[in-house]
Every structure is written in structure tokens, then in C-alpha cells.
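Batch job 17 of 40 flagged for manual review because the log was empty.
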Amino acid sequence: MKTVRANGIDIRYDVQGRGPWITFAHSLASDLTMWDDQLAALSGSFTILRYDIRGHGGSSVPPGPYRFEHMVGDVLGLLDALGVERTHFVGLSMGGMIGQHLALAAPQRLDRLVLSSTASGHDNQDAVLKLWEQRIAQVVAGGMSAMVEGTLGRWFTEPYRLERQATMARIGALIAATSAEGYAACGRLIPTLNTTPWLGEIALPTLVLVGEEDPGTVPAMAEAIARGIPGARLEIVPRASHLLNIEQAELFNELLLAFFAAR
């Protein structure tokens, strides 16, 4: 793991493998280690760049409010610092929101785009804002440990949670270790998401992935993204909730490898 100064903040990142670049952006309340299963499967054919989103992991926690322009600037600053001219991009949840904004702002830096477990907007922005303010209030009252049980319940199906206690402990520790300030700033960013009117401008080959049992970013949200981006391909992953890159890692990796190898 290394850290670089870019876009006015310190960004922790990790580079491994060889071949074309793939940049991975994680979810809220996680860090770059969320992609360990993808690193193992893809680093033999690709150069894997993982980084901690601002407010998370080993990256800076600047004061809010955050804007998606900040998030895009962080990615571009990191790519510039590492001399990466073009990259595939894989974003999950908040990382997928960043991916949409990046594809709209700097399409010349991207080759192919994967948007997983994410949304392009909200039918009821006020309700989403209220939900996030409630979660942030929980954190203020009880710290990030108060978010572990509920978040794991949304991120993984019940059978998987019961079978994979070690994984639950690992991901629970990531949630608990997240900066409360970073969580709040990113949580307040999510209700501002509204890329839906501009999805038609994304001209990159795009794969949209969603867990069949995801209660947060439901399949209908993925379907709306896939309809909006010309030529986008949609895959609904069975027996998976929000972090399908972990719960169905083998299938997730197969889908990525096939998509990046396609002509």
C-alpha cells in the first residue's frame, strides 16, 4: 500500500499485476481491501489499481460537504500521479456513482466501465436524505460500530451471513473502522446523485451488475441504468445481495474477465 498527494488530499492506493489497467472504486464504509477476491483472479492479466475513496481507509478525511466533482478529481489526480492514461473502471455502490460521473466528465480516460450495485438517481430525494440523516445520527450516537449489524444485513443474504462468519467479521471490521466524519460526508453526498438525464451521453462499453436480492440498489435501478446507457449489458446475479463481488466472487470475476476480453 502506498499514498500519493493528489487533488489536494492524500490517497492510499495499491497497484499489483501486469497488463491493461483496471481501477476499482469501493462502496461506502469499506476500503480497497473489499476487492481482494478480484485482485487474486484478475492480476495475472491486468494491472489492478485499488484506492481508498476520500473519507475512507488510509485516504484523507477532508471536511464536508463532498461533491461528485471532488470524487472525480480524486480519481483523475491519482491516475495522473501514476502516469495512467487510460483504464477500465469498476465501481460498486458509491464507487459506481463515481464511475458514472467519471465517464461523463472524462470519457477519454476510460476504456470499459463496470457499474455494480449502484443507482443513477432517486425517485424521492427527500426520503433518501432523511434515511441517510437517520444513519448519520446513529453514528453520532453510537459510533461506526452501531452500523455494523444493519449494514451486513443489507450487504449479504442471510444464508451467506450464517455460513461465512469469518467474512462477516472481516467486513464488519471494515465498517467499524470507517471514519465517522467520512461516512457522514459521503452519506450526505449520495442523496445528491442524479445522472439519469445524462446516461445517454456515456458512449463507453458498459456492464451493469446487480444482486438479485439487493435491498438497497434493487435490480430495477440497475435496469434503469442499462436502459439509459446505449448498448449497456445488464447481468442480474442470483443468490447475491449488495456486495456481490464477495458473495458471488467467482461469477463476478468471470463476468468481468469476459467483458474486458470482448471485442
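Reviewer: the log was empty due to a logging misconfiguration, but the result itself is present. The chain has a mean pLDDT of 97. Unflagging and moving on to job 18.
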